[in-house]
């Protein structure tokens, strides 16, 4: 019998745990040392040194607006539907939406006002904590990369995930550089997004492989199923 092509991917837990720990550590330092406003003001002041920086950051920050994140989630879900992976399609849409709803609820509960700094370049409505842009790009960019990368060779999967993480960081911190958020706001948003990303990873890992029923014959191990990325098999084995 012909051996099916095995799909590779990146295991999410090591990098997600390290990424979350680094951001949680920075958040803790800023809170304990009471450096949030000072650091935010310093970053915001750097932006005022050139109009070109402001224009670049204003363009960059638009990628964290609701429409780009929604289109990315819809595109990822369409990819899953093409693969007849209906559970993944639902997760790719539902998790970013749930993350946005939870962010708005926390904003209302916390009631933290936006920065009132002389260097503010982007004026935003609503409360400041946590950053909706940070939540949106963390769940949107990284979840899409995680799913798409699960069907790519390991090198391409890693490259895609790193690019998504760097893009999410750039969009997130553009909010501080433009004066729309404090540093703690965006760090909290990233951690909230990471929590929802972990929920999505668990849900994706426990779903049945698309189209696997009745396909594998006797003697074909489950791990050889071409629809099961390696990171999902690692989660299932724990």
Q: How do the helices and strands line up, and which of them pair or pack?
A:
Elements: H1 12-32, H2 36-47, H3 51-61, H4 66-82, H5 86-110, H6 132-149, H7 154-177, H8 183-206, H9 230-236
Helix pairs in contact: 1-8, 3-7, 4-5, 4-6, 5-6, 5-8, 6-7, 6-8, 8-9
Subcellular location: Cell membrane
Membrane topology: Multi-pass membrane protein
Main location: membrane
What does this structure look like?
This protein is an all-alpha fold. It has a domain at 47-207. 67% of the residues lie in helices and 0% in strands. The protein has helices at residues 12-32, 36-47, 51-61, 66-82, 86-110, 132-149, 154-177, 183-206, 230-236. The radius of gyration is 20 Å and the shape is elongated. The model is unreliable at 1-8 and 214-226 (pLDDT under 50).
Provide a quick synopsis of the model.
The protein has 238 residues and is an all-alpha fold. The chain has 9 helices and no strands.
């Amino acid at each position: 019998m012909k051996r099916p092509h095995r799909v590779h991917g990146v295991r999410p837990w090591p990098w997600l745990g390290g990424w979350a720990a680094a951001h949680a550590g920075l958040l803790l330092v800023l809170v304990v040392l009471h450096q949030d406003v000072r650091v935010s003001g310093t970053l915001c002041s750097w932006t005022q040194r050139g109009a070109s920086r402001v224009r670049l950051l204003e363009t960059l920050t638009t990628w964290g607006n609701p429409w780009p994140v929604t289109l990315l989630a819809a595109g990822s879900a369409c990819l899953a539907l093409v693969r007849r992976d209906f559970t993944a399609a639902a997760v790719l849409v539902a998790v970013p939406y749930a993350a946005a709803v939870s962010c708005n609820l926390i904003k209302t509960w916390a009631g933290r006002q936006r920065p009132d700094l002389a260097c503010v370049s982007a004026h935003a409505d609503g409360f400041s904590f946590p950053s909706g842009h940070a939540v949106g790009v963390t769940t949107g960019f990284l979840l899409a990369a995680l799913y798409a990368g699960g069907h790519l060779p390991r090198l391409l999967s890693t490259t895609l995930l790193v690019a998504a993480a760097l893009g999410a960081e750039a969009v997130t911190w553009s909010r501080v550089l433009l004066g729309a958020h404090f540093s703690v706001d965006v760090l909290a948003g990233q951690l909230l997004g990471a929590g929802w990303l972990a929920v999505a990873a668990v849900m994706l890992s426990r779903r049945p492989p698309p189209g696997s029923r009745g396909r594998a014959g006797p003697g074909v191990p489950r791990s050889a199923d071409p629809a099961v990325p390696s990171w999902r098999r690692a989660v299932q084995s724990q």
